[in-house]
Structures are given as C-alpha cells and as structure tokens.
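User: Here's a structure from my thesis project, written as structure tokens. My advisor, Dr. K., wants to see whether a designed sequence matches the one we expressed. Can you design one independently, without my sequence as a hint?
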C-alpha cells in the first residue's frame, strides 16, 4: 500500500471579511492627559486623529469572536463549515491554551484545528499565507484567519514614543477554495537581527521579580527607516510576484502603522491615482494584526472598496517580520 498524500483546491480566495471595533473612542486630546504631546503633533507625525481602545466589557477574545462571526456569515457559511482557526495576536495574555482553540469552540466549529501565531503587525498576512496553503493542500477547506489585539493593555501610557500610536480591534477573513487565482504568492521574511527594535520590556519572570508589567518598547526611527526602505520595496516585490502591474490594482491596504510610512510606500510603488489607499489609521490608530482586515471592512462599508477589487496588502512589525500578497476582495 502506498502512502496517501492530501490534495486540495487549485486556488484559494478570501470568501468573507469581518471586523470588530472597540467602543471606546480615545482622541488626541485625551492623550495629552497621559503624555506631553499635542493633537497637531500626533496628526502631523502619524495621521491619527483618534483611536479605539477596548472598553471594560471588551476583550481580545470577545473582539475576535465578533469579527469571526461576521466574516463567516458574509462568506455564506456556518461555524460547522470551518476546518481551521488561526489567530494572530500578541495581546492574548495566556501563552497557552491558544486563543484560537477557545474561539474555535465558542464559535461552534466541529472541533476545528486551531493555533495562534506570533507575527505582530504582519500577522494577518502570515495567517492568510497559512490558510492559502492549508486550502490548496487539502488540509482544510475553509479557514478563519483572525488578527486581534488589545494593545492598550500592554502599552506604557507614560511613554511618549508609543502611547499615542497603539490601539485595539479585531478583523477576520474566511479563506476557502477557488476555481480561479484569487490570492497571489506571499512575499515574506524576517530580520531577527533587529529583534530589539520593537519588543516587550520584560519576560514573565522579570515582570514578577521586578513587580512591573511587561509593555511594548519601540525605537520609532529605526522602524521608520526599515518600513520606508526595505518594506516599501517588499511591497513592490509582492506586486511583481503577483504578475500584475500598478495600474491593474484597485486598492492598496498597507498595515496602518503610520500615514507617513504609507506616503513613502506610495512614492516607491508609483501607484496611479486610480488606486484607492487605506488611511483608516486616522480613526482606528495602529491596531497591529487587526489593521488590514479592519481597513478592508471599513472601506467596503464606505464604498471605497467593492467586491471583486484587486488589493495589495502588506503587514510589517515586531520581529522584525513582514508579509504581503495580492488578494481579490470578496
Ligand atoms: C514614533 C514616531 C512618530 C516618533 O517620531 P520621531 O520624529 O521619530 O520622534 P523623535 O523621538 O525623534 O522626536 C522628534 C521631536 O518630537 C518630539 N516628540 C517625541 N514624541 C512626542 C510626542 N509623543 N508628542 C509630541 N512631541 C513628541 C521630541 O521631543 C522631538 O522634539 P525636538 O525636535 O524639539 O527635540 C516615528 O518615529 C515613527 O512614526 N516611527 C515609526 C513607528 C511605527 O510606525 N511603528 C509601528 C510599526 S508596526
């Protein structure tokens, strides 16, 4: 008897997208209570006017559930159709069990495979790459990919370098089989030599020993240089790998890290004005793995994006890690 290998769909596609936006609106004026700053400085340096933080009743789990339910419903599926759940988060406070396993059960899947990934702000694109591979190898038919964060809980509100930037939220996509190519090749990688550019201030033991929380630290200018140089070119390589040209794109949805980074990418990519560019950081802040699906969801709601659009996405962040692909909007 010969060993059997699995075979899946010829192609994969995003079948549905959903988002969950926390209810607490935190504007730049509120920021001035925590750090020495101004509305003008934050807007000028980042494009952020306000961000969302989880209210007391909202958690990384509840936001994930809401986003996933919406994505499944929009895909025209039920939780029983889901074979795998992937959650990308850095703010689920238990290292084990995974948030994905909890979500898979609470959604009502039939014991779907479930795992978390740690790829920070690149997590949604990392998750899509995983889902694409699972669907095309036949390991799963429908996969839920969730990017979810409550970064407000791990941000030092007295830190002038990060307090105004980070935010909360969740976004989800269902990936399933397709007859035609609807997701381009992933272009991804890492640079662990720059691990200390964005990291957590302490490990668990240090936090206990020192009686201090572990919070995000960031060398803003180093991130900025990397994002406007290497990552801008990774976005260009992602588009090139898809076989498309800039004028064939409808949407560009980079991780909502900072509008100045987005501007710099646009100059590098030389996208025509017909391409609509995500600027949802203005109202939602930088919510890491959640930012790309939240941006797509918001742009669908506002009419800036429509079903069938061709969209270049790229995530990048702590690791340092990055991943991008071209997808067809469901
Ligand atoms: C974080 C970031 C906005 C900070 O801007 P910056 O220009 O590097 O800030 P600097 O620390 O060099 O400080 C520049 C000036 O702004 C001031 N400043 C710094 N933080 C400030 C704040 N929160 N509010 C007001 N002023 C501030 C400094 O005092 C300094 O003033 P000076 O020129 O009078 O001395 C910028 O580095 C950045 O966008 N980096 C990328 C970060 C990112 O996208 N991360 C997400 C990756 S997932």
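Assistant: Designed independently from the structure alone:
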């Amino acid at each position: 008897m010969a060993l059997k290998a699995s075979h899946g769909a010829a192609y994969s596609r995003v079948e549905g997208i959903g988002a969950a936006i926390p209810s607490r609106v935190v504007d730049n004026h509120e920021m001035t209570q925590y750090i020495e700053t101004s509305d003008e400085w934050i807007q000028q340096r980042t494009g952020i006017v306000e961000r969302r933080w989880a209210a007391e009743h909202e958690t990384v789990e509840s936001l994930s559930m809401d986003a996933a339910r919406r994505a499944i419903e929009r895909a025209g599926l039920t939780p029983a159709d889901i074979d795998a759940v992937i959650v990308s988060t850095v703010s689920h406070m238990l290292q084990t069990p995974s948030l994905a396993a909890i979500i898979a059960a609470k959604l009502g899947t039939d014991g779907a495979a479930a795992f978390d990934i740690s790829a920070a702000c690149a997590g949604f694109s990392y998750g899509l790459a995983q889902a694409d591979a699972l669907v095309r190898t036949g390991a799963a038919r429908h996969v839920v990919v969730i990017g979810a964060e409550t970064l407000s809980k791990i941000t030092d509100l007295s830190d002038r370098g990060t307090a105004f930037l980070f935010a909360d939220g969740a976004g989800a996509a269902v990936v399933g089989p397709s007859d035609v190519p609807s997701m381009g090749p992933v272009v991804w990688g890492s640079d662990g030599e720059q691990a200390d550019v964005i990291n957590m201030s302490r490990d668990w033991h240090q936090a206990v020993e020192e009686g201090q929380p572990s919070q995000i630290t960031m060398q803003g200018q180093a991130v900025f240089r990397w994002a406007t140089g290497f990552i801008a070119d990774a976005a260009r390589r992602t588009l090139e790998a898809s076989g498309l040209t800039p004028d064939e794109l409808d949407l560009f949805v980079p991780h909502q890290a900072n509008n100045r980074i987005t501007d710099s990418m646009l100059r590098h990519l030389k996208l025509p004005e017909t391409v609509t560019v995500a600027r949802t950081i203005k109202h939602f802040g930088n919510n890491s793995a959640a930012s790309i699906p939240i941006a797509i969801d918001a742009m669908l709601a506002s009419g800036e994006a429509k079903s069938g659009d061709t969209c270049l996405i790229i995530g990048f962040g702590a690791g340092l890690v990055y991943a991008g692909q071209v997808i067809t909007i469901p």
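When you compare it with your expressed construct, this may help: The pocket of coenzyme A is lined by residues 35, 37, 41, 45-46, 121, 160-161, 164, 218, 220-221, 223-224, 257-258, 261, 286, 317 (CB under 6 Å).
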